């Protein structure tokens, strides 16, 4: 059954590869007809109603129908459906490139801007029209035909390459086989949840619920090395050439458009505005973190030396690539008395989900109800509706699909399937999104038990879902998370703070056997450990962001060497020879090229918002929560991010809270 008010046709029972292809063709025909109508208008008689309304109707229809057809590749159990979705997505993306590069449409938009008094338009309508013209120029529609054709070829090629990069990662089924001795240090319940091969060895995949526990807890250095090598080599042969081709094409495209580099092209539409500001931000933060990293590294080396002496392992006097998470975990357990495996029983999935939903309901003024009769793509998925708790207004729907399976999207993300906005007739469209994660699965004798990192990821991703659901933007282009990419993480990062506060922790925890909430002593040590290994973690983020910036501002011919050099320069740790993390760096292939810095950049604002408002006035204060919903979540991209932040804070943001959060004295 389709939930009330949802315009998306998403009945999985009717879905076949043939239907996916047929629906994609029909969508292309329908959308092209709308564009052809606008393109045929007499350029002297264009009006807002004749140009903008049909283009906007096409944008909503195409976005909604194509999002579902492309989403199937990330969630379906059927490889045939996933392959059909991937092929349809490629075709639709290429068609979207064609439509975005239509000179006849651009000419009529320019004519409209020159003809009408745009200051008389409503602010969001004015922003929409100006953005369409700006995007046309960024696509080169003001250039000569030969240049426009070359840009079209490049954009189609980039679209195909990005989709293939992600598909390779989703379809990876690498499995490693280890004996019990080789997995020494892993808890019994982890081992019991693993499959075994015909020889009785444990089967370990590269999915997060396997990869991170082994890197953190396995005492055998060689096992950690084998697993880290496999992960850093994941899809390397297929994906590194793809990424390097993408980088070359992006450079050629911006050369034609007149930008000095691809990062300049991207940052023009971001809060940062230019690569120089990004470089200064990353370099300054790196310098501030280095004294802290020196102390952290000395502690890691001392722990390694002691362990090598205790077990008669050879000691090489350095931190190896596969050592950092392992010894960082020991720091948490010894200096901060935080044993993540002892915490895990207090975070059963059902209790965490129940607590998370109640916390978000209270803070944001919402009510969530499970839609038990709703159609869904897998038994693991659960559909919820969200209503305003005061008015009862239906705000939208979200789906939680939380456990890993073969072929499923391998990380954590929210997919915006239907955008909350006004339709061309002024009626509000009910938003719909899906949250896909890969948390620890339940076993035959115990529920899914999350570690605290997974709880934090859960809160973060659910924050994106709420950004989508709470949107009150009028135009789809500005709906929900369609804000500047270097701000988009801030609302979710801000909400991660609830995973470290006493009252929320009590609400979301309950021992899976006794129901007892997280005891005060464990809670105190957990909260004290928030700064544990902060320098090492954040310097790794700086490495990834710097790698991203360099490949998009400089001529880089060897991504493996660049990644290795950055790791050595910033952390003084050598990468594993013959591996190249670039093959798994999906952010650079699609969605975040030249923008990975945004995770740290946006944290400046999230830290300021939390410390200045919620920490002072109460983390469960519904008044502050509603103000946050109204001023940060509801506008979407209908106003600039810096304006939203000032509206919420009542002043310009500062870096002070961000630096304190990193353990840096202000």
From TrEMBL:
Name used for this protein in its record: Peptidase M3A/M3B catalytic domain-containing protein
Entry's cofactor comment: Binds 1 zinc ion.
Span of domain Peptidase M3A/M3B catalytic: 215-663
One of the Pfam families matching this protein, by short name: Peptidase_M3
GO terms, molecular function: metal ion binding; metalloendopeptidase activity
Organism: Artemia franciscana
Family: Belongs to the peptidase M3 family.
Keyword Protease: yes
């Amino acid at each position: 059954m389709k939930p009330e008010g949802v315009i998306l046709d998403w009945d999985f029972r009717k879905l076949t590869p043939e239907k996916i292809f047929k629906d994609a063709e029909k969508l292309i025909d329908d959308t092209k007809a709308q564009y052809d109508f606008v393109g045929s208008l007499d350029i002297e008689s264009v009006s807002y109603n004749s140009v903008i309304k049909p283009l906007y109707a096409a944008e909503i229809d195409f976005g909604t129908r194509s999002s579902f057809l492309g989403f199937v590749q990330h969630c379906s159990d059927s490889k045939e459906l996933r392959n059909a979705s991937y092929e349809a997505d490629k075709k639709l993306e290429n068609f979207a490139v064609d439509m975005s590069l239509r000179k006849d449409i651009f000419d009529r938009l320019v004519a409209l801007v020159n003809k009408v008094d745009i200051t008389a338009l409503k602010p969001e309508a004015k922003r929409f029209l100006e953005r369409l013209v700006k995007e046309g120029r960024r696509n080169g529609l003001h250039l000569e035909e030969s240049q426009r054709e070359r840009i079209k070829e490049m954009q189609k090629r980039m679209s195909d390459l990005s989709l293939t990069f992600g598909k390779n990662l989703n379809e990876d089924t690498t499995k490693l086989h280890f004996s019990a001795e080789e997995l020494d240090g892993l808890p019994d319940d982890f081992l019991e949840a693993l499959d075994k091969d015909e020889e009785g060895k444990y089967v370990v995949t590269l999915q997060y619920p396997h990869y991170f526990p082994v890197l953190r807890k396995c005492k055998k250095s060689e096992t950690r090395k084998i697993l880290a090598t496999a992960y850093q080599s994941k899809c390397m042969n297929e994906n590194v050439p793809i990424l390097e081709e993408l980088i070359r094409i992006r450079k050629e495209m911006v050369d034609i458009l007149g930008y000095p580099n691809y990062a300049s092209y991207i940052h023009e539409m971001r809060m940062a505005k230019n690569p120089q500001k990004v470089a200064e931000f990353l370099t300054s933060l790196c310098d501030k973190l280095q004294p802290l990293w020196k102390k952290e590294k000395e502690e890691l080396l001392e722990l390694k030396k002691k362990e090598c002496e205790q077990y008669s392992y050879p000691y090489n006097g350095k931190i190896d690539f596969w050592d950092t998470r392992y010894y960082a975990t020991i720091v948490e357990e010894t200096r901060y008395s935080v044993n993540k495996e002892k915490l895990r029983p207090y975070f059963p999935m059902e209790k965490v989900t129940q607590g998370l939903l109640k916390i978000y309901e209270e803070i944001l003024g919402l009510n969530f109800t499970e839609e038990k009769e709703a159609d869904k793509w897998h038994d693991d998925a659960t559909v919820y509706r969200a209503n305003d708790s005061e008015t009862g207004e239906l705000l939208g729907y979200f789906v939680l699909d939380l456990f890993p399976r073969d072929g499923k999207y391998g990380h954590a993300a929210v997919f915006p399937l239907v955008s909350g906005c006004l339709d061309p007739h002024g009626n509000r469209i009910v938003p719909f999104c899906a949250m896909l994660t890969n948390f620890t699965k339940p076993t035959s004798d115990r529920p899914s038990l999350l570690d605290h990192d997974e709880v934090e990821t859960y809160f973060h991703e659910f924050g994106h879902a709420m950004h989508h659901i709470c949107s009150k933007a009028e135009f789809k282009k500005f709906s929900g998370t369609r804000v500047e990419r270097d701000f988009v993480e801030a609302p979710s990062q801000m909400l991660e703070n609830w995973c470290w506060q006493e009252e929320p922790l009590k609400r979301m925890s309950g021992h899976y056997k006794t129901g007892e909430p997280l005891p005060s002593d464990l809670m105190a040590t957990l909260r004290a450990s928030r700064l544990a290994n902060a320098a090492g973690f954040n310097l790794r983020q700086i490495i990834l962001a710097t790698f991203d910036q360099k490949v998009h501002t400089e001529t880089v011919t060897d991504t493996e060497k660049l990644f290795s050099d950055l790791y050595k320069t910033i952390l003084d740790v050598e990468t594993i020879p013959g591996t190249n993390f670039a093959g798994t760096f999906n952010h650079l292939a699609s969605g975040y090229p030249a923008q990975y810095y945004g995770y740290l950049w946006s944290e400046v604002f999230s830290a300021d918002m939390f410390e200045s408002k919620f920490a002072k006035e109460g983390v469960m204060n519904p008044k502050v929560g509603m103000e946050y919903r109204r001023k940060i979540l509801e506008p979407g991209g209908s106003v600039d991010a810096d304006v939203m932040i000032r509206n919420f804070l009542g002043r310009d943001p500062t870096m002070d809270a961000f630096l304190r959060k990193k353990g840096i004295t202000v």
